[in-house]
Design goal:
With about 350 residues, this protein is α/β, with parallel strands linked by helices. The chain is built from ten helices and eleven strands. Helix content is about 45%, strand content about 15%. It has a six-stranded parallel sheet with strand order 3-2-1-4-5-6, sandwiched between helices. The protein has a three-stranded antiparallel sheet with strand order 9-10-11. Strands 7-8 form a two-stranded antiparallel sheet. Strand 9 and strand 10 (about 295-305) form a beta hairpin. The N and C termini lie far apart (about 45 Å). Mean pLDDT is about 90; it is low at about 1-5, about 10-20 and about 25-30. The structure holds 1,4-dihydronicotinamide adenine dinucleotide and oxaloacetate ion. Its EC number is 1.1.1.37. Homodimer.
Length: about 350
């Protein structure tokens, strides 16, 4: 595991300059088909994410689903002179059609935080939304890779896994919580603090996606940089609280949408490149994991044609990072348990 992490730095160093993969050129698009669905496409994340995906030559078909407004979003995006064919679906009765044939399903559907709330406060609303949507994925596109953005990710991923399991179609390589925004933020903040080019910085961020379950591994930074204890404290704190920083700045109108759209697009392009046969594709993601004592855990992951090929593990943690792992314990475990218990009750209710 440690060996793979030392290799990882080099891999990431080589892919970092290619982070920006939006282009309106269709000349080299080829004839392959790549079908991607966005569930929650009319929302704060859904709209800019759908725009970024529409701009990519990697996508042949873009399916937009929401319970409202997708017809307008779809009509608008469909006028852009790029390859992806846009189809818009609205309302529960069109969900199955939105999903049929999809290879990658992104789920930003769900309510966002307001100031004073934790991500876990979104559980009551978003758990059911994710369970309903993933149930439909299980029936209509059981082999698709499902990327969950809706919070609380620490719980919504276990919910999705249990739903897929119930339908007999769970592939642990294909149900992933999107934690790319933590990696994006970590690179940005470190680059700012150290005067580096942010597109050449990679900080593995492991753990979960809320408060102190977000564990940036600044000791495994690429390129290697050293930090004072004070720098470690302030960077770690800022990365862990970055979502709240945006929620407070938006003052009741939502949480991160534009940076999240970028992060989800980056994750999508990486997955699609791997599905297309590109080697050496690595992104962090929250997934069923054997790397630590936690049942679900984010680590750097290698992607191939079949989804996640393998985890790169957590590498050698510094004393500081070992302490962060300790601090994450109770919240992450209770978030996972809460998701699993919800799924059990949800599936029980469906049987009646
Ligand atoms: N994983 C991450 O790093 C991040 C996750 N988030 C999470 O993403 C979620 C979405 O955030 P925003 O786009 O800002 O919220 P939003 O409220 O602007 O958009 C959510 C969209 O979901 C739709 N929706 C609600 N129920 C639905 C259903 N059953 N089926 C399909 N669509 C449905 C709504 O109509 C709306 O268009 C939130 O839970 C937020 O906490 C936000 C930022 C980062
Ligand atoms: O903070 C939130 O509620 C949204 C989110 O997950 C993030 O920005 O990382």
């Amino acid at each position: 595991m440690n060996k793979s992490v030392s290799v990882l730095g080099n891999v990431l160093w080589s892919v970092a300059p290619k982070l920006v993969r939006y282009t309106s050129s269709t000349r080299d698009a080829g004839s392959f088909t790549r079908k991607v669905a966005v569930l929650g496409a009319s929302g704060g994340i859904g709209q800019p994410l759908s725009l970024l995906l529409k701009l990519s030559p990697l996508i042949s078909d873009l399916s937009l689903y929401d319970i409202q407004h997708t017809k307008g979003v779809g009509a608008d995006l469909s006028h852009i002179e790029t390859r992806a064919k846009v189809k818009a679906y609205v309302g529960q009765e069109q969900l199955a059609d939105a999903l049929k044939g999809m290879e990658l399903v992104l789920i930003p559907a769900g309510v966002p935080r307001k100031p004073g709330m934790t991500r876990d406060d979104l559980f009551n609303t978003n758990a059911t939304i994710v369970a309903d949507l993933v149930s439909s994925c299980a029936k209509n596109c059981p082999r698709a890779l499902i990327a969950i953005i809706a919070n609380p990710v620490n719980s919504t991923v276990p919910i999705a896994a249990e739903i897929m399991k119930h339908h007999g179609v769970y592939d642990e390589k294909k149900v992933i919580g999107v934690t790319t925004l933590d990696v994006v933020r970590a690179a940005t903040f470190v680059a700012e603090a150290k005067g580096l080019d942010p597109t050449r910085v990679f900080v593995p961020v492991i753990g979960g996606h809320s408060g102190n379950t977000i564990i940036p591994l600044l000791s495994q930074l690429s390129p290697p940089v050293s930090f004072s204890k004070q720098e470690l404290d302030s960077l770690t704190k800022r990365i862990q609280n970055a979502g709240t920083e945006v929620v407070e700045a938006k003052a009741g109108t939502g949480s991160a949408t534009l940076s999240m759209a970028h992060a989800a697009a980056r994750f999508t392009f990486s997955v699609l490149e791997a599905l297309g046969g590109k080697e050496g594709v690595v992104e962090c993601g929250y997934i069923l994991s054997k790397e630590t004592e936690f049942k679900y855990f984010a680590t750097p992951l290698s992607f191939t044609r079949n989804g996640v090929e393998r985890s790169h593990g957590i590498g050698k943690l510094s004393e500081y990072e070992t302490k962060l792992m300790e601090e994450a314990k109770s919240e992450l475990n209770s978030n996972i348990k809460k998701g699993e218990e919800f799924a059990k009750a949800y599936l029980q209710k469906q049987k009646k």
